[in-house]
Amino acid sequence: MVDANSTSCLLLIILAWTVYYLLNKLRAHGHNYPPGPRYLPIIGNLLDLAKLHGSTGYQRLAKEFGDIVFLSSFGKNILVVNSSKTAHELFEKRSSTYSCRPQSVMSHELIGWDFSFAHMPYGERWNVHRRMFHREFQQSAATAYHPIQAEEAHALLRNLLQNPENWESYLRHNAAAIIMSVTYGLKVAPTDDMYVSLAEKALEGVGMAASPSGFLVDFFPFLKHVPDWIPGASFRKKAREWHAATIGMKDIPFEAVLEELKMGKAAPSFVSNLLNEQEPEKNGEVEIIKNCAAVIYAAAAESV
Ligand SMILES: *[C@@H]1O[C@H](CO)[C@@H](O)[C@H](O)[C@H]1NC(C)=O
């Protein structure tokens, strides 16, 4: 049973590999791509991609090939932009061409990050999320959050005065406390906060999936269907764990706010303000509010 399955799976992989290679050849033909490392038969720049860990790998590429470097492997094209000048040129001045986001099977489909408007493709769905975010965080609305920041700044100063040697954990706590308060009106524990740990776990997966050589499933999307017992399919187990953390990160603090709103004791926050405005349930906006809140919270957890 298992043998027959493994053989057909292997054949399938070889077939898909060949098809990808041929398609790739066809696509590359006639295109004028920027310079980059030599494109090897079948694997393309896979070996170069595997070497791209940390900033030194990218610096080496720029030194050798210039300010814009092109790599490609199995249909995945990657452009490495070395300087802020070029980044500004492409992503600011020509943002209508380049503001789309690549879609990763691992992070979007398996880990569940398709909720995040920071990772969404440019389009209507992205637009409604961005507008919701802007409603509470445009400059005129953001001043409403000054008291929260002042209160946490005072707490930080008091802590620093008492135990200056703990400055690092106080600074981390300060960032997490402000953002959880602004986003959900929730307090965080001084150490090992549940919400912060959840976000860190959820971010671990997208962080790894975002690396250019990330996961094989991003080169061969059909691999998302392989059964768990196939050697090398451990990414599925990891993806499930990260998916659970991602759902928890989105749902748990949000539901805490719903509960507080029901009891009439929710503090003003991004979530409670938007839920109190107009009628989000009727307009199908609850999910959008929840998604935007999770992006803010995740971005903050990453920076603490
Ligand atoms: C890459 O960027 C660095 C930092 O901005 C710069 O010093 C270097 O000259 C750039 N390399 C190329 C090839 O443009």
UniProtKB/TrEMBL annotation:
InterPro entries: Cyt_P450, Cyt_P450_sf, Cytochrome_P450_fung. GO terms for molecular function: heme binding; iron ion binding; monooxygenase activity; oxidoreductase activity, acting on paired donors, with incorporation or reduction of molecular oxygen. Pfam families: p450. Its cofactor is heme. The chain crosses the membrane at residues 6-23. Keywords: Heme, Iron, Membrane, Metal-binding, Monooxygenase, Oxidoreductase, Transmembrane, Transmembrane helix. Gene3D superfamilies: Cytochrome P450. Coiled coil: none annotated. The keyword Protein biosynthesis does not apply. The keyword Transferase does not apply. It comes from the Eukaryota. Belongs to the cytochrome P450 family. This is Cytochrome P450. It comes from Agrocybe pediades. The lineage of its organism: Eukaryota, Fungi, Dikarya, Basidiomycota, Agaricomycotina.
